[in-house]
Structure formats: structure tokens, C-alpha cells
Amino acid sequence: MMRERRQIVELWERGDAVALATLVRVEGSSYRRTGARLLIAANGDYAGSISGGCLEAEIVRKAQWMVGAGATIQRYSTLFDDTAEIPYGLGCGGTVELLLEPAGTPEFDALMDAMRSSLHGETQFVETWLPRPGRQLHRTVQRVDDVFCLRPDFADSSRNTFCETLEPPQRLFVFGAGDDAQPVVRMAALLGWSILVVDGRAQWARAERFPEAEQVLVAPAADDLRIDSRDAVVVMTHSYEQDRNWLAAVLPSGPSYLGLLGARHRSALLVSEVAAMLDWTLERACAGIFAPVGLDLGGDGAEAIALSIVAEIQACHEGKLGASRRMAPEAVTELIARDDASRYLQAQCAL
Fold first, then answer.
1. Beta bridge partner(s), residue 9
2. Which terminus of the chain has fewer Cβ atoms in its 10 Å neighbourhood, N or C?
3. Does any domain span residue 279?
4. Residue 90 pLDDT > 60, yes or no?
5. What is the mean pLDDT of the chain?
6. Within this chain, do residues 214 and 296 fall inside the same structural domain, yes or no?
7. What are the phi and psi torsion angles at 323 (to 5°)?
8. DSSP secondary structure string for all residues of 210-271
9. If you ran DSSP here, which 8-state letter would residue 171 be given?
10. What angle do CA 26, 29, 107 make, to 5 degrees?
11. What is the DSSP-derived secondary structure letter of residue 18?
12. Side-chain half-sphere of 334: how many Cα atoms within 13 Å?
């Protein structure tokens, strides 16, 4: 959905948008959640989606005509039933209500500005009074600060309003610019995330190797990155010393996700040393790190590992984590007893 927001804003900035459809209510099942949008241009181009593909063609074809007199609410059935009054059936099993509004109005521009601001890191709260007989569409936008209580998307039938919080994209920091970091960046970009790649090796940390990343940085100061509790971090430099230093720098920031690539024994040594560097208990250090990184999806190779990493971050972001792999303090102690860190101490990966 975040990628679609980027595409919608890009289409709007072209200057030829004619109508916007927003999914504001769902009864029963629906392919998309409320808040899904479809922006339509004068030449028939569009960005976003509001169904699994069954409604888009109809909306693109008729939207400009339907908003000729202003914003309107349209109701569509997604039941797999040829006798339904307006069947657009892929068997989703419900009905949806769409807000259709013309482009170029103050309300439309306010929403587009809010969407663009959210992509630049500002959380926006939008409340839309839906049109009904005798009342036109009305909308307010408020920038959210730390004091303001965030509310989820919902339609209040008693007030006939649709409220939504436009949060910034998930930020992902990838520490490590090796070849195996490239599919991680590509897959995260497909979800519309904001991605920063960091490495101490200038020959690896080059923008042309990561065209989807917003920034590719060579050995920045950790404080300059301003990592916070909403961010996701993956440490995968293949350099023991780099991994240790970045873990020690990032762990106190408390990112929502901090994954460490590597074998369990290597990870145990790193966690143990980082805990000592920070004067933390092993329990505290282990609680903040996902290791081995990624969901256990099976498969082999850089792409399979990248998929497992991005899937785990997405699950964490959505509160859907199942059996993720975490290191327990007891396991760290046991693994360290088997060997020391000397075999990992090299300036960079031997490959």
C-alpha cells in the first residue's frame, strides 16, 4: 500500500488527475482494506487499486462522469453472484463503498499534500466528512505529533466520517553492501519502504549498486543516522568487527526490528561482546536482536534469505510475528563455550 501511495503522488504531480476513488467501508470480505485508493488521469492512466482487479476498469471508465456534480459515494457488490444488482465478482464475499471525488478541489489537494508529506516522514491525520444529500464532502488534515493519539482507519456511520492516519514509510537500514544485500533492498522497495544502505567499504557502498535505496552511505557516524523505535535494521556486513561495532551503536536506539545475519555461534559471540561493551545483561541484549535473521521459510541463496528477512520485518511491523528465531541467554553461553571469536576476526568477508 505504501508503494501505491508513492505511485499515486507521482501521478498527481503530473498535473492531469481527474478523479480519486477511496475505499471507505467494507461489509463482509474484501481484497483491500479501507483506505485503499485509485487515482485516475485524464488519459486513462491510473495508480493504486481498490480491489483484486474486478472494479478498477469500471471505475477508470466511469469515474470522471460520476464526479461531474461533485464527490459521491458508490456501493459495489463483490459477491460471486451473477444476479446481484451490481456484481463485480471474484467471490470476495462482501460489499464495498467507494468515495469518488473530483481532482483539483481544495479537499482533494489537501489530501494529496498530506500523502506527499507522509512520504517525507510526517505522520498526518485525515478526517473526511463523506458527501450525502444536502452536504458536500469536507476534509480536515492535521499533522500528528508525539502528543496526538493515533487512530486507525475507520468509517463512523453515526457521523458519516472516514478517519485515517497516514504514517510514513517503514524505514529500513541495511548495514552491509555486499551482493546479498541487493535483493533485500529490491524486495523492501517493492513494499514502498525508505531504505538506507551503510557500509565501511567504499568499494561496496556505491549508489549504482543500490538504485532503489534513498541513500547509500560510507561509514557514517551512528548518531547521524537518527535511528528510532519505528525503524528496522539488518546487520549483514560479513565483517565480524563491523557487525560488532554497528550492533553496539544501534542496539541502544531500540529499533522495532534489529536482525543479525550469520551462524548461531558467530551471532552468540557478537551478542555476548556487545552486551559487555554496553554493560548490559545478556537477557537485555538478546531481547533486542533477531538472530538468526529472518523467518524460517526454507530455501537457499541470497534471494531466499532476502525474502525471509523482509517477511519477518513486515510481520513485525504488522504485529503478526509467529515463531521468529531469537537467541536465548542460555544458548549464547553454551555456544560461546564451544569456541572463541578468533576465526571471525578479519577486516572483511573472505569472499
1. none
2. C
3. yes
4. no
5. 88
6. yes
7. -95, 70
8. -TT-SEEEES--HHHH---TT-EEEE--S-HHHHHHHHHHHGGG--SEEEE-S-HHHHHHHH
9. E
10. 25
11. E
12. 6
Give pTM, 2 decimals. 0.83
Please name the residue that has the C-alpha cell 532476502.
306
Q: DSSP characters for 86-114?
A: SB--SS--EEEEEEEEETTSHHHHHHHHH
Residue 349 resides in a domain = no
In this structure, the answer to whether residues 178 and 289 fall within a common structural domain is: yes
Q: Which three cell numbers stand for residue 116?
A: 506527499
pLDDT tier, 332 (very low <50, low <70, confident <90, very high otherwise) = confident
Domain that holds residue 67: 2-121
Q: In this structure, what CATH number is given to the domain that contains residue 204?
A: 3.40.50.720
Exposed e or buried b per residue across 72-83, where buried means at least 16 C-beta atoms within 10 angstroms of its C-beta: bebebbbbeeee
Domain shared by 279 and 179, yes or no: yes
Which stretch of 88-92, 122-126, 137-141, 156-160 has the lowest confidence by average pLDDT? Answer: 88-92
Q: Which helix (H) or strand (E) holds 77?
A: strand 72-77
Quote the cell numbers at residue 60: 477508470
| Number of domains composing the chain | 2
Nearest alpha carbon to residue 162 among 140, 179, 190: 140
Residue identified by cell 456484481 is 87
Which of these, 131, 127, 100, lies nearest to 17 by C-alpha position?
100
